[in-house]
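BACKBONE GEOMETRY TOKENS
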Amino acid sequence: MDIIFTASPLKAFSGSLSLIGFCLILGVGNLLLNYLPKRKRREGFFKRHSLGCIAVILLMIGGVTAVVAFNTYQYGDKTVRVQALEKTERVVKCNETYCAEYAVETTDGEKYYVFGLSKNTWDKIESGTCYRFTYYPLKPLLAEYLQEENQAQSLYETTGYITLIERAGC
């Protein structure tokens, strides 16, 4: 079997981990800068507590991102053998410039999966060929509580952090 892409879980979750670290460091730093020095009572309420409010928002964003990333990691990875149906390249607006997003739509015969890939990995994928994808499925926080018992299975599954792509026989 030909390995096309491989990544450790640490590398797969590195984007989320860096966002968590950034938000937590900035949030705690803002709290310390705002409330450690002595503030004058004459300053207005908004001026005294504006950095504190921003810090709380940053800490909440970091906390929610940490819970979502941990929830995804806790469910474990999943391996599926799929056939690549279509490769798509989309140009989307990224702030002031345009950038390309690369995806491959696949199926295992029952469900469809859309995997977002980097340009180098996307170039190695061939339509009509079978692959084995190992990834962490994205699970909503309250999915098991909100899903009804008799609800039909979805035809599409959300895919998350990819750790392994290898060529497989159909």
